[in-house]
């Protein structure tokens, strides 16, 4: 059960944003971008059709959006592209695009204020577009920006703009219920692997995905897919998400602060980041299958055992769950290769045992950051198979991590609070829509 929605596609198709327009230059839509826009539209349309025929998805598109009258105006346009090879120079490429030597030089000079065309890179593309009104040259600097040079027909002068490249964004809303594995449920819902991993990362301080995920857990995700001109997904951004783990609801919303940085917060404005990660090993496609295929996946905390074991294949990276320093690193009896980290709260330490190897160069006294790789899963010492034995210690005594009182997460700054509420309210509305009444009953 997933639905998905198309968002502002055409708005972006129509307006190639100009990052730094030259004053006096006319803002116009390059004809070739309309063509490539059409191509993207067609590709997206196929994606959309593909999704809509799958039984688990529902699609809403307004057809008017696709059939903009402006798209059909782009006729009588000739274009030619040349890919840059080793040893090519801008002038020689422009000549191959049909410009005279002197005009080629003129074009390079016209660009200098915006971009030095001596810096062109192998593999990038120069494109010449001739239409009834102008001759245009494009050079794609990176995924976000392109150089646009233009000469009006009958004129001699070349003008130059730096422009944002056409990037299409589509918003999707997806829900899933875990039957066999998180990735299975994500696949079913049509959510790609990258977004699934990002979802796991957002809740890494709240949910131990490696041990605590259960059949019946569910998720809802509102996210954006960003497409390049060729219709491929470049990236995705999760805007809001909910994960229900063993009946506990966790929610996160993305907030972009006024300084432009963004991170995830609870709906009431507390950072999702906390002093300790829930698990010292990252959840992966492989471990998910392994864990969920068993009733009692791994030996958990008991009085006798005093720790938590993570079954993982040999060589799986082990991450420090919190900031601190290495207070022990070396061989320790049955623990084999063993690391003890003392955390910033001096009462707290975490222990990692049975490693195959330590992270290169790590030594006693070194400071480590949360998430830093400190070693690799193995079976050194007394171990019957590769696994990580992990302990959370309070004043040196191993405790059940669930019972540890953690410092509260940092709230959003007071001066950002109103802005936060405004920005995140519509996302929460989306999430609420996905909840069946029973889920909140
Ligand atoms: Zn153990």
Automatic annotation (TrEMBL):
Organism: Mariprofundus ferrooxydans PV-1
Cofactor(s) required for function per UniProt: Zn(2+)
GO terms for biological process, alphabetical: proteolysis
GO molecular function, one term: metalloendopeptidase activity
Full protein name: Membrane protein
Signal sequence range: none
Compartment list: Cell envelope
Transmembrane segments: 32-53
A cellular-component GO term for this protein: cell envelope
Domain M23ase beta-sheet core per the UniProt entry, residue ranges: 304-401
Residue span, Csd3-like second N-terminal domain: 171-291
Family annotation (PANTHER family): CELL DIVISION PROTEIN YTFB, PEPTIDASE-RELATED
SUPFAM superfamilies hit by this protein: Duplicated hybrid motif
Lineage: Bacteria, Pseudomonadati, Pseudomonadota, Candidatius Mariprofundia, Mariprofundales
Swiss-Prot/TrEMBL keywords: Hydrolase, Membrane, Metal-binding, Metalloprotease, Protease, Transmembrane, Transmembrane helix, Zinc
């Amino acid at each position: 059960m997933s639905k998905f929605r198309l968002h502002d596609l055409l708005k972006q198709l129509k307006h190639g944003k100009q990052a730094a327009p030259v004053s006096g230059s006319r803002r116009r839509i390059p004809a070739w971008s309309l063509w490539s826009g059409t191509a993207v539209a067609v590709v997206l349309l196929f994606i959309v059709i593909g999704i809509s025929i799958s039984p688990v998805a529902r699609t809403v598109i307004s057809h008017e959006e696709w059939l903009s009258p402006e798209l059909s105006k782009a006729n009588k346009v000739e274009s030619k592209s040349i890919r840059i090879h080793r040893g090519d120079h801008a002038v020689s490429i422009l000549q191959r695009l049909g410009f005279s030597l002197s005009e080629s030089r003129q074009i390079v000079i016209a660009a200098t204020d915006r971009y030095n065309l001596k810096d062109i890179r192998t593999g990038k593309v120069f494109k010449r577009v001739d239409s009834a009104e102008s001759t245009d040259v494009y050079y794609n600097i990176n995924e976000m920006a392109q150089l646009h040079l233009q000469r009006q027909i009958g004129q001699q002068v070349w003008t130059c703009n730096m422009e944002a490249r056409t990037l299409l964004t589509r918003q999707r809303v997806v829900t899933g219920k875990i039957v066999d594995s998180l990735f299975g449920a994500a696949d079913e819902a049509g959510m790609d692997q990258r977004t699934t991993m990002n979802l796991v990362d957002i809740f890494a301080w709240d949910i131990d995905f490696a041990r605590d995920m259960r059949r019946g857990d569910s998720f809802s995700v509102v996210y954006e897919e960003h497409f390049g001109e060729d219709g491929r997904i470049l990236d995705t951004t999760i805007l809001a998400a909910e994960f229900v783990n063993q009946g506990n609801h966790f929610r996160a919303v993305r907030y972009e602060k006024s300084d432009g940085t963004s991170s995830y917060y609870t709906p009431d404005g507390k950072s999702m980041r906390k002093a300790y990660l829930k698990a010292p090993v990252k959840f992966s496609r492989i471990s998910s299958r392994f864990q969920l295929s068993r009733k009692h996946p791994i030996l958990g905390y008991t009085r006798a055992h005093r720790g938590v074991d993570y079954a993982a294949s040999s060589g799986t990276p082990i991450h420090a769950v919190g900031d601190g320093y290495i207070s022990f690193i070396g061989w320790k009896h049955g623990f084999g290769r063993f690391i003890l980290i003392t955390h910033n709260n001096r009462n707290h330490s975490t222990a990692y045992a049975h490693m195959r190897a330590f992270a290169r160069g790590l030594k006693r006294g070194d400071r480590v950051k949360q998430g830093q790789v400190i070693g690799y899963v193995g079976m050194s010492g007394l171990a019957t198979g590769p696994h990580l034995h992990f302990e959370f210690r309070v004043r040196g005594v191993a405790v059940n991590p669930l019972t540890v009182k953690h410092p509260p997460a940092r709230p959003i700054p007071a001066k950002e609070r109103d802005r936060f509420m405004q920005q995140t309210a519509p996302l929460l509305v989306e999430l609420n829509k996905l909840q069946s009444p029973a889920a909140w009953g």
